Amino acid sequence: PIKIAVFASGSGSNFQALAENVRDGRIHASIELVVCDKPSAYVLERARNFQVETYTFSPKQYASRQAYEEEIVAMLQAKGIDLIVMAGYMRLVTSVLVEPYYGRMINIHPALLPAFPGINGVGQALEYGAKITGATVHFVDGGTDTGPIIAQQAVQIDDQDTLETLGARIQKAEYELLPKVVGWIAEGRVSLDGRKVTINN
Ligand code: GAR
């Protein structure tokens, strides 16, 4: 089974969805580690409930992003991590992380990329007046939410939607989309050629 590290900064409900799929045998993988940049994040409690090891760091205590990423990469390599899943990890990454893990690092974003990248993807779509938005899982490259797209799930925007109601529907879509993609990767079905992603049978 492939070894996964989940990076998260907040509630960790996507970690939860992934961990339940792994626990129930729907994904043939093991979650080895949760990496978190916020000591108070609820994802850490969820990780403990699943007996997943955690690594928490405070970015302020480092001279640069590169400095803490070097530590993280060393740890990931020591643990033999095959796949990094960014699930609500709210930090930009540098080449220190991207170079060794390009093609083995994915991110979930709460919009249909390339629309509404960056922070507050849900609110951006609402503000813009879009009628359809959704969730995207993509490989991470050096840009902000610019990497090759693996899969997307559309979500309709209703006239009555607020940040809360729309956000909740997008999250529901995420809890299906992210485990589905991780399952494909665990089965060795996802190939990447330039920007082109193919899902093999
Ligand atoms: C998710 O909705 C994810 O798409 C979003 O953060 C949320 C984390 O929720 N990610 C981004 O906005 C990345 N720019 P969670 O901590 O409950 O999984």
Q: How would you characterize the overall build of this protein?
A:
This is Phosphoribosylglycinamide formyltransferase. The active site is at 109 (proton donor). There is one protein chain. The protein is of the alpha/beta class. Helices cover 36% and strands 26% of the residues. It contains 6 helices and 9 strands. It has helices spanning 13-23, 43-49, 65-79, 95-101, 121-128, 163-186, and strands at residues 2-8, 29-36, 53-56, 83-86, 105-109, 132-139, 149-156, 190-193, 196-199. It has a 7-stranded mixed β-sheet, with helices on both faces. Strand 1 (2-8), helix 1 and strand 2 form a beta-alpha-beta unit. Helix 1 (13-23) packs parallel to helix 6 (163-186) and helix 3 (65-79) packs parallel to helix 4. The longest helix has 24 residues, at 163-186. The chain is globular and about 50 Å long. The relative contact order is 0.15. Residues 8, 10-14, 43, 87-88, 108-110, 121, 171, 174 line the site of glycinamide ribonucleotide.
SSE arrangement:
Layout: E1 2-8, H1 13-23, E2 29-36, H2 43-49, E3 53-56, H3 65-79, E4 83-86, H4 95-101, E5 105-109, H5 121-128, E6 132-139, E7 149-156, H6 163-186, E8 190-193, E9 196-199
Parallel strand pairs: 1-2, 1-4, 2-3, 4-5
Antiparallel strand pairs: 5-6, 6-7, 8-9
Helix pairs in contact: 1-6, 3-4
This protein binds glycinamide ribonucleotide (GAR).
Glycinamide ribonucleotide binds next to α1, β5 and α6.
